[in-house]
Amino acid sequence: MPGSMRLQFAVTLVGLLALGCGTTGYTKVDGAWAYVTWDEGNGRKVHDLAADNDSFVVIDQKYYAKDKQRVFYEGQVIAGADPASFQVINRDHFAKDKQHVYLMKHRIAGADPASFQVIRGPYSRDASRVYCGTVPMETASVEAFEPLQCDGMWMTCFDKGSFLFDYGESFSKLEISSQQPVVVGSGWGRDGKYYYHGPGRVEGADYATFKIIDSFEAADKDRKFMNVFPEDELPARRERFLNVK
Questions:
Q1: Containing domain of residue 173, as a range?
Q2: Which of 60, 91, 123, 173 has the greatest number of beta carbons closer than 10 A?
Q3: Is the residue at 2 inside a domain?
Q4: Between the CA of residue 168 and those of 65, 74, 147, what are the distances in Å?
Q5: 1 occurs within a structural domain
Q6: What angle do CA 217, 219, 224 make, to 5 degrees?
């Protein structure tokens, strides 16, 4: 995996059980609903949800729960989620309510819950767009888009420069910060006109001879690519976006 993106792997530790650690996830502690975690470094921790005990419902022991006012993911509130209409779509951590679509606790900007569907791996779509994680993509065809290789790994990016380095300036208007991260998955896709890595389009590649090498590398008859860019462009891009010479 390239070291370019400052990524935080979205891999929960709450499912780790060890001798004596007790129940983890959503559970009642001293009569009140809480979220309990356990790991070898910190041991058992009880996180107060300040939830309404009478209306609290566990949707998934490790991930989702709700009360009459709020929806929770891993014990954290999903901002703006509607408890009455909230539903989990699948085990890849996609969910929706009557107005929005979510990946884990993050909203997928602009996604239409009525037509939304998960394609495979990090890729999903609605009636008008394809998405990689929480990021809207610019594809040549929504209907023709197909995932080719997906490793099932979610990555959270807090740094815009790193994201643009990996996926290109077409995302320059995308809001990315420590307060507003984006979630993407590692994968390749195509739509009959272009190949894509993660949410980014591979520009200038020969479609007929394009071959995927591994999770991050590909090549056509003329050159080799890393993520969505030719390898020979990477030094200049590192200096521009990562301040690395």
A1: 7-242
A2: 123
A3: no
A4: 37, 32, 20
A5: no
A6: 75
What mean pLDDT do residues 32-46 have? Answer: 91
Tokens of 41: 């470094």
Contact 199, 164 (CB under 8 A): no
Question: How many Cα atoms within 13 Å fall on the side-chain side of residue 60?
Answer: 21
Q: Which three-class secondary structure string do you get for the chain?
A: CCCCCCEEECCCCCCCCCCCCCCCEEEEECCEEEEEEEECCCEEEEEECCCCCCCCEECCCCCEEECCCCEEECCEECCCCCCCCCEECCCCCEEECCCCEEECCEECCCCCCCCCEEEECCEEECCCCEEECCEECCCCCCCCCEEEEEEEEEEEECCHHHHHHHHCHHHCCCCCCCCCCEEEEEEEEECCCCEEECCEEECCCCHHHCEECCCCEEECCCCEEECCEEHHHHHHHHHHHHCCC
What was the pLDDT predicted at 22?
Answer: 63
Residue 59 lies in a domain: yes
Domains in the chain, number: 1
pLDDT at 11 over 80: no
Q: How confident is the model at residue 243 (pLDDT cuts 50, 70, 90)?
A: confident
